[in-house]
Amino acid sequence: MKDAIEPSKIVNLNQRPESPERLGALVHSVRDTASRRLQVLLGNMFEHVDDALFDLAEKAENNAAQMHYFDGMREVRKRRPVVERAYLAQFSRELTEFAANRRSASTDSSPPSLGNIELSLVGENELEESLAITSLISKNASRITRDLFALNQRLSVICGGIKVDDTNNPVGPAVLTQTFRQAMRELSADMRVKLIIYKLFDRYVLSGLEELYQELNAELMRAGVLPQLRHGITRSGASQPAGSGTRAAAGGANALGTGGDVSAEDAGNLLDTLHALFTARRAGHDLSGLGASVSGSRALPTANELLGALSVLQSQMASQGSGSPGTAGGLGIGTVAGSGAVDFDIAHEVAALKEHLLNQIGSLRGERPHHVSSIDEDTIDLVGMLFEFILEDRNLPPQMQVLLARLQIPYLKAAILDRRLFAHRQHPARRLLDSLADVAKGWSDESDKDRRLHDKVKAIVEQLLHEFDDDMGIFDRLLADLQEFQELTRKRAELAEQRVAESTRGREKLEQARRRAAREILERIDGRPIPPLVHGVLARAWANYLVLILLRQGEDSPEFADGLRFVNEFIASTRLGSDAESRATLRQMLPGIERALRRGLANVAFQDNDVERLLDQLHAFYRQQLGEADPAATTTSEQGPPAIPESIQSIVDTVQETAPLAAGTTDEPLEILAPEVQAQMEAVGAMKPGTWIEFCPAGSAAERAKLSWISPMSGRYLFVNRRGLKVGDFAPQELAASLAAGSARILASNAFFDRAMDAIVGRLSQPASDASEPG
């Protein structure tokens, strides 16, 4: 419904030129009258906030929710004067600046673009608030059309000819509501409390605008501003008031026993908002493909007729089974292309669905309707966009996208039965879809070789297709079934995940102990040469002993201090002089060295005969040091380095391989990262356990894995699949490099339905040339 001026009936368009002083006085008069009435209306609203919040607190489902309402009551009492002053001051500024032509006026004659609605997608709270504001504006703008139109024309005259319309009128519901939103920023209350206050603002402030406009129009008429203004109302046969479809739909839902008055109001508010968005997107063209031959003589399909037609299509789809590439009547579910993407034209399929619905209704009633009501068309398109998002969401594997896409008709039935589906996060149908998407996110062929998860999702889809009629309780039952399955799977996966983490932690501790032992020995050797025999003992047998102490007793233990003391004495024994005093010192040291060596080698499982062979070699070496070697015997230096017994080798090889003793430092060189890798390091640093990643190595199948554990020692990231089995562990820079190269990508962690609604609102609020949507 649009208002159009009948030029021939407009008289006295301020025929005599008026002085700026008189026009300014009229603007001030409008401001004073509006401020006085708004102050009364706002005060009356705040008088009811306490009672409303107290009633909600008494009915709260738990203590936490109750405290939110009580906290909100205290915050409102404390900040009410600030909010009222901020609101009235901002309103006064808006009107003054607008009249002074400092504020840009709207020049677009097309339907509102909803730019003033500030549909921010920053966060869930902001989205909820934006939807509430949009709904209030849409609802009240259509209610007070006649008086608001007259006020727009008269304000245009006294503001110097600026074009004034519903979107920029400083006394209109759009600007007044946005002004109140700004004033509400003075209130640090929970979003649930703010949404209640917005409802009260609608009830006690916006509902009083009609009387305000009548008073302002009468005042301006008395002042001679367009005293004989007339306007007619033109009706389009193809359109109807936005609210009528909502009321009819809500009535249909209540007739089926799916909700009370409050729930219908909440759902209606959200659908009013989306209706405004869809209307703005459809402005200027008929996107339904069904509106060209509208006939007012044929009644629009009722909710029951739509549900009956959908049930027929649902039955046909269920009978085809999941193996078919299409669904009933040509409504496709998509197929997985060779690239892994799903081949699916949702816009074509939604248009086809509308056509099939009208044909089916025609066969049931004997007369085919030309189109559905605007609110039902919005619902069909909204569900279509929801399932388009499923097929575009790369967080879901293609095989799961195809499975979930088969739920389009059951979810369209659910949306018609219960409008709360899109308004409430705790709606069972919404929670079921969120849970299905969540379990599907971690699915891959490799992690589901027994097909347990795939078959569970498929069974839920099939059960909805075969059994869902009008009993919304089926969503609760299937959600409980899925949660039970998830709990069993989670317990098994947690056990496997714990074993993987413990094994990885143990290996890292061993690696750290090896590096520490090697570093301690290297520091004491200090790059100076030592005899090969002593070097071999320290690098292999004694290094292994130090590793064992570090793992069992720790670096602060007396045993570790004794082990390092032996290293000092053992090395010192090779660097004494050949004079008599040095030989005496060496003789005093040898018994302690031998005792320590026997004890240490026994702890690392040396056999007695191996210990004796090694000690014999050391005795020969020290006799040579003391000048007591048998002249007939071949010297150690001539024989070369004495061999470590083979039975010892298996114990100590790993120490030599991972921490070889050599002159120089063990510090690793600093790695210079490429800019694109450096850019991904922040994303890697922000990852928390529980984050899912898809690894897509070239030439291999994609694998989805969850971040299970970040090592506090090495900083490496351990990933497991949904069964708790290890997929890999990576240093942060390795992971960043994979993200930069596109061989890995982080999957979204927020709920599927929230992502979908953000994307849908974002798409609908774009200019029509920048986005497309079904229907």
Reported for the largest beta sheet, the result is: 5 strands, antiparallel
Class computed from helices, strands and strand pairing: mainly alpha
Count of spatially separate domains: 4
Cα distance, first to last residue? Answer: 22 Å
Kindly state the number of beta strands: 9
| Poorly predicted parts | 1-17, 102-122, 231-264, 284-297, 323-335, 631-670, 771-775
General form:
elongated
Number of helices: 26
Quick tags:
775 residues; mainly alpha; 5-stranded antiparallel sheet; two-stranded antiparallel sheet; 26 helices; elongated; disordered N terminus
How would you summarize this macromolecular structure in one to three sentences?
This protein is mainly α and 775 residues long. It has helices at 20-58, 63-99, 124-143, 145-158, 173-183, 191-204, 209-222, 242-255, 261-282, 303-320, 346-365, 374-392, 398-405, 408-417, 428-441, 452-467, 473-525, 532-552, 558-572, 580-603, 608-626, 636-639, 646-658, 675-686, 732-741, 752-764; strands at residues 2-5, 231-234, 335-336, 342-343, 692-695, 703-710, 717-720, 726-730, 744-746. A hairpin with a 6-residue loop joins strand 6 (703-710) and strand 7.
